Amino acid sequence: MFRIARRVSLLAIAGIAASLLVATPAQASIGPCTVSTPGTATVTVYCGGHAPSTFRAKINCFTAIGYRTEWRYGPWRTAGGGVSSTVICQSGWTRIGSGYDAIP
Predict the structure, then answer these.
(1) Could you tell me the mean pLDDT of each successive run of 10 residues in the chain, 104 residues long?
(2) Where is the signal peptide (predicted)?
(3) Is-contact 57 86, C-beta < 8 A?
């Protein structure tokens, strides 16, 4: 009887210790983002923060030929990595909207 109670006690203590040592996932962080619109057909975005957070620039382009609009996207970048994401409308199109996508 004493062996069973002792074994149960040891298992309970081991379970509590294991639950305290469970690793928590890294906390992602996206910092403030700066959106620049140099010219009429370009968007550049930079976000502070740190990995694994990511961001990308996006631009809504318009052409009078067929009155069409189209969203275009820059490359994904790591937050706080020192590199901006830039996207440009096709030749002859103009920017009518801009922004960014972020994954914190």
Answers:
(1) 48 46 56 95 97 97 96 98 98 97 96
(2) 1-28
(3) yes
Between CA 93 and CA 61 the distance in angstroms is 6
Helix (H, G, I), strand (E, B) or coil at 62: strand
Question: Residue 97 is inside which H or E element, if any?
Answer: strand 94-103
Give the CA-trace dihedral at 89, 90, 96, 100, to 10 degrees: -30
Separation CA 86–CA 35 (nearest Å)? 10
Give the pTM: 0.72
pLDDT tens figures, 76-91 = 999 999 999 999 999 9
CA-CA distance, 44 to 98, in Å (whole number)? 9
Asked whether the beta carbons of 31 and 49 are under 8 A apart, the reply is yes
What's the length of the chain? Answer: 104
Question: Please, which residues have CB within 8 angstroms of residue 22's CB and are 6 or more apart in sequence?
Answer: none
